[in-house]
Design a protein that fits this description.
Layout lengths: L23 E3 L1 H4 L8 E3 L8 E3 L3 E5 L3 E4 L10 E4 L8 E4 L5 E5 L5 E4 L12 E4 L8 E4 L3 E2 L3 E2 L3 E7 L2 E7 L6 E7 L8 E6 L6 E5 L5 E3 L1 H4 L8 E4 L3 E4 L3 E8 L8 E7 L10 E5 L8 E3 L1 H4 L7 E7 L8 E6 L13 E7 L2 E4 L15 E4 L8 E4 L2 E5 L6 E8 L13 E6 L2 E6 L14 E6 L5 E8 L3 E9 L2 E6 L2
Parallel strand pairs: 33-39
Antiparallel strand pairs: 1-32, 2-3, 3-4, 4-5, 6-7, 7-8, 8-9, 10-11, 11-14, 12-13, 14-15, 16-17, 17-18, 18-19, 20-21, 22-23, 23-24, 24-25, 26-27, 27-28, 28-29, 30-31, 31-32, 33-36, 34-35, 34-37, 37-38
């Protein structure tokens, strides 16, 4: 069933808070945290406080401390969280090198599970997806390259149950994949995958063909880049010049209930290289072609943009963008710094990096959001630090944890979408297992609701397979768990 808006009724009006205050504090020392690898948030011990994996496991102690868990059984590497065996405990897949799968035993320890050796060799991003809607989480792993020598394939593994994963698909041609993101952008009930390709290559929007494979609709949907000329690359592939994309995000940036795409392009100051793109999902009526809204967004150019992530840090109901850079000094001896842009609505964003006290961060690929202290606002992990959000605003909020039944939908709720209708807006969040290049935001969904003139809301949950569930009377400024019935 394809839909352009949710079906539940308008409930209330939303007055958005647009003021900007300095909200963030570098709390890394206070929290005992330091870690520069890519960040994956997940509550692995089910204590209600989200933990963090950055190449090593950090246990969150009631939002007060992060403890380095040296005896967890996890062997390192960059990873993503997902409950592959539907036992209620988050497991960890590390996609770097030959790859590794770690089963959460439920006692604070992990055990390695036999997993096929990855053909991706030096992957930089992966996602958990339920490709066939059987409630078992599968894996899409992006393949990168050895520069000017070889390019590695992307690969999909289907979860057969009991810890067995079988390869069912490889990319037909090898492109230099960096970030991987997943969402059901077209509302057909099957999760799709967007792959950020480097070396001026077009990006792939892999539409789930509902047969354990994909069709690349990047060009058809106008999400592949802005083609300009044709070049060749290692492996004999020929392609139109587009962008050096490092990481991208699926997010509803305009509150219309449809999942949009932000494309995070690194771009040297030379003609023919795509700059970052804000792509609006046109919906079913226009065959899900994406419209480029980049000019109105107001993102200033920097050469070395890398890994983006979206979250509503000021609880005003509009998503904000944090975007890393990976050069300290770029071409022309120009300094490059990660940036924080506040969403203002109508595809406009304002640079608040300095105001929010996250300015002059060093080069990094690390960028992920989570509410580490359960106070209702999103905190940020980047550049080996945790910036605690000491929110001075009064914006209302809601957090939702999804739990599938393990039969119709996976326990983690990955691939699900939650919508709240607010006047003429539809605030939309989806449970994602990967964002940017190899990072992961918290699986618990966070909604900012501004100066909402209501104390309770109704939400609509769309589980993988288009199982629709409505939850009414959810109190604001609280966390709710919704279980698939």
């Amino acid at each position: 069933m394809l839909r352009t808006i949710p079906v539940f009724c308008v409930l209330f009006n939303l007055a958005l808070t647009t003021a900007s205050f300095g909200q963030f504090t570098d709390a890394s020392g206070e929290l005992g945290f330091s870690g520069g690898n890519k960040a994956a948030f997940g509550d692995y011990n089910n204590d209600g406080f989200v933990d963090l994996y950055t190449g090593k496991l950090w246990r969150n102690e009631n939002g007060k401390k992060f403890i380095d868990v040296t005896d967890s059984g996890v062997g390192g590497g960059e990873g993503i969280w997902g409950d592959y065996d539907n036992d209620g405990h988050l497991d960890l897949f590390t996609f770097t090198g030959v790859g590794a799968l770690y089963r959460n035993r439920g006692d604070g320890k992990f055990e390695a599970v036999k997993f096929p050796e990855l053909p991706t060799k030096n992957s930089r991003g992966a996602v958990w997806i339920d490709i066939n809607n059987d409630s078992l989480l599968d894996l899409y792993v992006g393949g990168y390259e050895i520069w000017q020598q070889t390019v590695h394939p992307d690969v999909v593994y289907v979860n057969k149950g009991k810890g067995v994963f079988d390869e069912v698909w490889r990319s037909p041609e090898n492109y230099s994949a960096r970030g991987v993101a997943a969402a059901d952008y077209d509302g057909d009930g099957f999760v799709d995958v967007y792959v950020s390709n480097y070396r001026l290559q077009p990006n792939f929007l892999w539409k789930n063909n509902q047969k354990n494979g994909f069709e690349n609709v990047g060009e058809k949907s106008q999400s592949h880049g802005i083609p300009d000329g044709v070049i060749g690359y290692t492996g004999g592939i020929q392609y139109p010049i587009c962008g050096h994309t490092i990481g991208s995000c699926f997010s509803d940036m305009d509150n219309d209930g449809l999942i949009d795409i932000f494309v995070g392009n690194f771009s040297h100051p030379r003609a023919g290289q795509d700059h970052p793109q804000f792509l609006k999902n046109s919906g079913n009526e226009k065959d899900f072609v994406f419209e480029d809204k980049s000019k109105s967004a107001g993102l200033a150019w920097q050469e070395s943009y890398a890994s983006p992530t979206f979250g509503d840090f000021n609880n005003d109901g509009v998503l904000d963008l944090y975007f890393t850079t990976v050069y300290g000094v770029g071409s022309g001896n120009i300094r490059n710094y990660p940036v924080l842009y506040q969403g203002k609505g109508d595809w406009a964003f304002e640079d608040v990096t300095g105001t929010q006290k996250v300015n002059e961060q060093p080069p990094t690929y690390q960028a992920a959001w989570a509410d580490i202290d359960n106070d209702g606002d999103l905190d940020l992990c980047t550049a080996g630090k945790i910036f605690r959000n000491d929110n001075q605003l009064t914006g209302k909020w809601l957090k939702i944890r999804l739990s599938g039944d393990g039969k119709k939908a996976n326990r983690s709720g990955i691939g699900s979408t939650v919508r709240i209708k607010v006047s003429d807006k539809v605030i939309t969040r989806h449970v994602e297992s990967g964002t940017g290049e190899g990072n992961q935001n918290d699986l618990t969904l966070h909604f900012g609701l501004g100066d909402l003139k209501a104390d309770m809301v109704s939400v609509e949950v769309t589980w993988p397979g288009n199982y629709i569930q409505t939850a009414d009377g959810l109190k604001l400024n609280a966390t709710h768990t919704i279980t698939l019935k």
